[in-house]
């Protein structure tokens, strides 16, 4: 009787472990995606950290899909669904004109864009 109970306990433990492993395999399955990345520069060519970078759908430019600050090296990166789709990438910073570029995602790919911040003129 003890052997049967022990065997059943081991069997249930193995089944439970197998279910957990199967669930983890399902949950770690990554959906396809594309990357929109780039750098923010000043007109002098120096990378600019701390700029606000916004990704918006082209057909809804006022809607922010994602937003972040550029890294100290001026870099940014957004994960988006694979295309086809169009986005507007915008960088802003106090004392500088807004910089924008259009981004087209065709498939599961990485697109790199550079945004140039030019100081506003004091007229």
- CATH class categorisation of the largest domain: Mainly Beta
Strand order of the largest sheet: 3-2-5-6
CATH superfamily of the largest domain: Immunoglobulins
Summing up helix and strand content along with how strands pair, one would put the structural category as alpha+beta
Number of domains: 2
Shape from CA axes? globular
- Major sheet description: 4 strands, antiparallel
First-residue to last-residue Cα separation: 94 Å
What is the CATH topology classification name of the largest domain?
Immunoglobulin-like
Number of helices: 1
Strand count:
7
Which percent band covers the strand fraction?
A: 35-45%
Mean pLDDT across the residues is 85
Can you tell me about this structure?
This protein is of the alpha+beta class and 123 residues long. It folds into two domains: 1-30; 34-117, Immunoglobulin-like (Sandwich). The chain has one helix spanning 2-27, and strands spanning 34-42, 52-57, 66-69, 75-80, 85-92, 99-105, 110-117. The strands form two sheets. A four-stranded antiparallel β-sheet has the order 3-2-5-6, with no helix packed on it. Strands 4-1-7 form a three-stranded mixed β-sheet, with no helix packed on it. A hairpin with an 8-residue loop joins strand 2 and strand 3. It is globular. The protein starts with a helix and ends in a 6-residue tail after the last strand.
